[in-house]
Structure formats: C-alpha cells, structure tokens
Write a structure and sequence with these properties.
29% of the residues lie in helices and 31% in strands. The protein is α+β, with helices and mostly antiparallel strands. Strands 8, 9, 10, 11, 12 and 13 form a 6-stranded antiparallel sheet that branches. It binds uridine-5'-diphosphate. Uridine-5'-diphosphate binds next to strand 9, helix 2, strand 11 and strand 13.
Length: 245
C-alpha cells in the first residue's frame, strides 16, 4: 500500500495521510519505549505482532458492538483506520493491582480489585502523563461530564469483553490503556491500539510472578524473551475466533 505524508510519528506507530481525508494509515513499529521514553529499544517483529493482535481485538470488539477506528489491515504491520481527533486522555482499566497503582497506593502486586478501576491520565509527555481527577478533566476541558460518563461506561464494557476473550486464551487481563477519538461527524470511536504494549497480560498456566508476564513489563523490567512472549500472545489471540461469544 502506498503511503502519503506523515501526519504524526509516535513511539510505537507512524500515522500517514491517505488520498481519503477520513482514512489514515497506521504503520506499527518495532521500536519500544518505557518510562516516558527514558528507556528505548526494539522488540523483534513487534510491529507486525502488535498490528495482528490489535486487528484481531478490534474485530472482536466490533463484533460485540463497540465502534472502533479499525478499517482493515492492508499489510502485516499496517492498519487502515478512520480519521479521528484523539481525546488527550489515557483511559486505564484495572482488574488486578499492578504498576503505578501499587507504587502510588501500596496495594500488593497481584491483588484482585473488588470491581474494575478506571483511571484517567493526561496524555501529555512533557507533563509525564499525570493522573487526573474528574474535576481536573473538566477544568482542562478534556471532556464534559456527559462524555466522561460515556467513556467510563465504554471502558468497562470493553473490559468485560476483553476479560472473557483473554480468559479463553488462558490469559488474565490485569490492566490496559485505551484511547478514544472523535470523527469529523462527531462519532466516538475506540482508537490507538490494544496489544501487549498497552495491556498487562499474565499467563494462567505460569504461577511464577516473572515467568507469567506476557507484556511490555518484560521489556520494562528486563525479564528477557520479550519477542517470544509477544509471539505467544499473538498465537493465542489469533487462535480464537472474533465473533461474539
Ligand atoms: N499504559 C500504556 N501507556 C502508557 C501508560 C500505561 O499503554 O503511557 C498501560 C500499561 O501497559 C498498563 C496500564 O496502562 O497495562 C497501566 O499502566 P500503569 O499506570 O500501571 O503504569 P506503568 O506501571 O506502566 O508505568
């Protein structure tokens, strides 16, 4: 697929314009970053692995009635997506305590949460993606109360769908990050990607707390076999069909 001008280059993807103003092309990269890009590296074949996983998961969500930006996958590491204006919020859903939740609250790693927790972070690298409160979201005009309620409801619905899907893969969905965008005609769509870069995924058949890790924590924490873990996730995800259960 021929590509147009670069609209935006992020840490994990390059976004190209296409001939159609309402369609963009996302090129998934092998580059990996962590800790607000202080740690950099590459993960072999990550571009095509994450593109395949995200494609499959967007199809699963679409089949369950969630509107996403996904159109199709013209090449193994390329996704055509609907043009949206990204809402600068990172919507994180957590089922089990891990990462910054443990660091900031003292909750033990691996503690199941009584109900899913939805956290909002300001998508701003210069500020270090700070945790927001609803009032700060309104203060900064990042969302109206109605939009925030809609995002919350959507995030929890996506969580239910993905928990069930990953359970069928023998994987526990610990937490994950979503981004949403709005089309020119004001439609709210799930955007960005869902992949081992943006989720914490634990192998149900591995009790060992390091060996069970199948996501970017392997890269963040130098646990090794990062590409092997990503490939395993891909194989298990692609082994499940995309239709609603
Ligand atoms: N996450 C992400 N991008 C970010 C920050 C977090 O995809 O910029 C994902 C991360 O992979 C994890 C979840 O969101 O699945 C929660 O991350 P957390 O807040 O615990 O931050 P971390 O410990 O990764 O710094």
């Amino acid at each position: 697929m021929s590509t147009g001008d670069v609209l935006y280059e992020g840490k994990a993807k390059i976004i190209y314009k296409t001939d159609a103003p309402d369609i963009l092309l996302a090129q998934y990269k092998d580059d990996a970053t962590a800790f607000n890009a202080q740690k950099r590296g590459t993960i072999t074949n990550k571009g095509r692995i994450n593109c395949a996983i995200a494609t499959h998961l967007f199809k699963v969500l679409e089949a369950a009635g969630v509107a996403t930006h996904f159109i199709d996958q013209p090449a193994p590491d390329q996704m055509r997506v609907r043009t949206v204006k990204i809402i600068p919020l990172e919507v994180v859903v957590r089922n089990i305590a891990a990462g910054s939740l443990c660091q900031q609250t003292g909750l033990d790693l691996g503690r199941p949460l009584a109900q899913p927790l939805v956290d909002y972070y300001y998508k701003d690298d210069a500020l270090g993606d700070p945790l927001l409160t609803p009032d700060r979201i309104f203060l900064l005009s990042l969302a109206t109360p109605e939009r925030l309620a809609q995002l919350n409801q959507l995030a929890l619905r996506i969580n239910q769908i993905l928990i069930a899907f990953f359970q069928n893969c023998g994987i526990t969905l610990v937490d994950f990050k979503l981004e949403f965008g709005i089309t020119a005609d004001q439609q709210l769509l799930l955007a960005d990607e869902i992949s081992p870069d943006t989720c914490r995924l634990w192998d149900n058949s591995e009790p060992d707390p390091d060996r069970r890790v199948m996501d970017k924590d392997r890269f963040r924490r130098d646990l090794g076999e990062v590409d092997t873990a990503y490939t395993r996730v891909m194989e298990r995800v692609l082994g499940q069909n995309t239709s609603a259960p």
